[in-house]
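HUMAN: Spend a minute on the protein record below and explain its fold to me.
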Amino acid sequence: MSGECNYQSFRQHYFLDLPSLPHLKIECKNLKKIDFSFAIFLDEILKQKNITYELIDAHCEVLEIFSLIQRRSEFQIIPHSSSFLAKLGIWVYQQAKGFLDFFNFFGYFIVSLFQIFLHPKLLRFSSLLFHMNHSGFKALPVGLVTCAIVSCAISIQGVIQLQKMGVPLASVETMAKLALREMGPFILALVVAGRSASSFTAEIGVMRITEELDAMRVMGFDWYRFIVLPRFLALVIVMPLLVFVADSVSLFASALVIKVQTDITFIQYIERFYEYVGISHMWVGVIKAPFFGAVIALVGCYRGLEIQGNTQSVGKYTTLSVVSALFWIIVVNAIFSFVFTRFDL
């Protein structure tokens, strides 16, 4: 070998035409430079042909490279295995760090929210209206269809059981209260969470990857006032309106099922509804709606700010955002159910 031998000079050496010899001597006197990839390639070719080789007049650097290659079978990669206590400690540390990060995020958010209340001109109303439309009203068709389907399915099961008990008229107030208190707001919140929480996380994550957030910080813009607050206020404002429409659709679907199953007319349904179902049941669902919107927005924005500078974390935290939003919606709904039951509302 002579000159420089690197990964670009493979074709200049006819390794496939090597003679079938048990041992080969390679003259390296005129070899100026050799890289690691060429040395590995040469060693593998000769091993495949069962040829041993010897380097003649080679420099010490060349000998060191080939010595390392020939001894590579001696090196073993020992997989790192952690004990149960080590894994438990890592998990506890990650959870504690996550709680502290969220409290830090929530603290900055509260400060920015008070600034907006004290100085409303700081709020970007164009961004607020955009997110009300994009994250709220555009989710209405899917949410209404979902509420109608779930209401029909639950109403069918409820009406059949009440018919067997001999009280089909009781299905009116039972299904109406269930639609106003639970099915309308809760099902709609789940749909909005799956749609908007993932959208918020992905949008903010891409802004972090493209370094838009860093640019905003350098220019002195507040992340929370420009990114988090418009999304938060948009869902808090728009969710009660969406819940009101979802309640109406759920009631209509329930009334339709009751009419088909029990021959109770719409007039009878409306009369019994006004007689036995109070307006307070509608307010129960509407009161929960802003809290659902707040949970969805905070979780979506927080997970978006957690994303690191790679595309893999976008998918990870977007999935985690949806799961977390659904979980906290269920928790908030359970808390409200307990409180309203406790105070007989």
Summary: The radius of gyration is 34 Å. The mean pLDDT is 81. Residues 296 and 325 are 5 Å apart (CA to CA).
